[in-house]
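Example 3.2
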Amino acid sequence: MNIRPAHRADAPGIATAHVLAWQQAYAHILPASFLAGLSVPERTKRWELILDEEASTTLVAQLD
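Structure, written as tokens:
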């Protein structure tokens, strides 16, 4: 496993993990309609903005 700084190209994968994690972790806390409405494309756009910032400290684990 390789741990490295995240790049803009990692945004879709991070967004997918983010949405799926929320849907699983908060299934008994938040309304199902809210969780179903979480959007990977929208989260991808947000992650692209985050990763474009020079001060981003986001890391990803990469398996070959």
